[in-house]
Amino acid sequence: MKNNELFDLTDKVAVITGAGSGLGAQFAITLSEAGADVVCVDKDADAAKRTADIVESAGRRAIILECDVSVEEQVRATMREAHNHFGHIDILVNNAGIADPSPSRVGQYKSADWHRVIDIDLHGVFYCCNESLPYLEAQGGGKIINVASIWGMVGGANVVPIPAYSAAKGAVINLTREIALEYGKQNIQVNALCPGFHLGTRLGEGATSDPDFVAVLTAITPMGRLAQAEEIRGPALFLASPASNFMTGQTLVTDGGVLAQ
To answer: Which InterPro entries does UniProt cross-reference here (predicted)?
Structure first.
């Protein structure tokens, strides 16, 4: 395979949740520029349309599907419609997620907040995998990228107490390993992408709008800065493309060196 074929996604179909903003929009733009058509899934249809317009400006096809990934019936309908529209699904990027609404220690954490984070960040990933895997298996393979976090690999409380988010992202990482083992012989590669601190994302808007908190995050990042949203594009393309065909069940960390400490 030639170098220019390693990252070629011509005529592939990518379903991206949370595609309306932040990292989700970056995933959609990146994969479309590599040749993929994109299913822009988001709870905010207007935001998804903005991303779809960018995809179409790159010469690829895009559709908008409004979906709350925490609602299994909506996910089922979304995957069915995506498959019916394009005839196949090749790549699933499970990006939709929320942060802890009110960060606090476990003893003071609201159970309603716990369930909301787990419903979206963990159950949503399961629902999307559960509904897409039969399509991937039937067509002979595909790629799943589960967007986790460095806080799924270590606790975050030394910076900010985020018990639900950390628990959900840790579970996503191990769910990724489990699915990879189950579907390896079906030519389905399943990997987790674990970003560090990125500017320009909906998930981090509250935190990164606080200069003092940005200073804290910058101080614990060995590279001495936070990432721009577009710096996720290279790792995402690698995991979505033939370049990663012999990689499955792995966790790719892009954190400026935070976890190396």
So the answer is: NAD(P)-bd_dom_sf (IPR036291), SDR_fam (IPR002347)
